[in-house]
Amino acid sequence: MNKVVILCFVLVLAACTSTDPYTGEEKTSNTAKGAGIGALAGALIGAAVSSKSDRGKGALIGAVGGAAIGGGVGSSMDKQEAALRAKLEGTGVRVVREGNNIRLVMPGHLTFEVDRHDVRSQFYGTLESVALVLKEFTKTNIRIGGHTDSTGSDSYNQTLSEQRAASVGQFLVSQGVMSGRVSTTGYGKRYPIASNDSAAGRQTNRRVELELVSF
Questions:
Q1: Are strands 182-186 and 140-147 parallel, antiparallel or unpaired?
Q2: The whole model's pTM is what?
Q3: Which of 74, 78, 69, 67 minimizes the C-alpha distance to 36?
Q4: Tens digit of pLDDT for each residue in 25-84?
């Protein structure tokens, strides 16, 4: 059974490698990673539910099915990532790929006025572009998190972060994104991504993040 799992994993990865146009290095696509993980999980399940004499066959069947499912998720997220990068180029929104999830980092100074939680009208077009992609790729849940810097009281920052996350979520829903896919949370100042000791760092920490989670 181990040989079957390893063989499937190697074949999937080999079939889905590509050359990075900037570095010239070989890299494995997220589709291949998903397929490989799916193959491994499918093989283990297939072997577990098969009789002792048929475990090799069960592992092979499970690996093939798992690879197809895992690869399909990876492929869908690859396409969604590409669409988001194309739509958001030059907007200041950062697109971060994390396995089969995608994170959009929206700087607070672009999204909101100082100490306000309603989305700036200048940012409507950017969020409308995000909504278009989210409506096209429906196999993701959207987790929206609001973040502040360390200035002000904990209670104020917590409330502001919650309100800002909710405002972004409401805007996306108003653009036709299904509300059942959207959840919002405020984190206040708890998760800085830069030092709060400088003005530049505090500006970086004031942000809203959208995490697109495949299901």
A1: parallel
A2: 0.71
A3: 67
A4: 555 656 555 555 655 655 556 556 556 666 666 555 655 555 455 456 689 999 999 999
26 burial (CB, 10 Å; 0-12 / 13-18 / 19+) is: exposed
- Which of 69, 149, 49, 144 has the alpha carbon at shortest distance from 106? 144
CB-side exposure of 2: number of CA atoms within 13 Å?
A: 0
Strand-pairing partners, residue 102, are: 97, 212
One CATH from 3.40.50.1450, 3.40.50.300, 3.40.50.1700, 3.30.1330.60 for 90-214: 3.30.1330.60
Task: Please check the confidence at residue 116 and state whether its pLDDT lies above 70.
Answer: yes
Q: What secondary structure letter does DSSP report for 93?
A: P
Q: Give the number of other CB atoms < 10 A from CB of residue 2.
A: 10
Please state the domain extents for the chain. 2-75, 90-214
Residue with tokens 């200048």: 122
Lowest-pLDDT range of 48-57, 91-100, 129-138: 48-57
* Rounded Cα gap, residues 43 and 61, in angstroms: 7
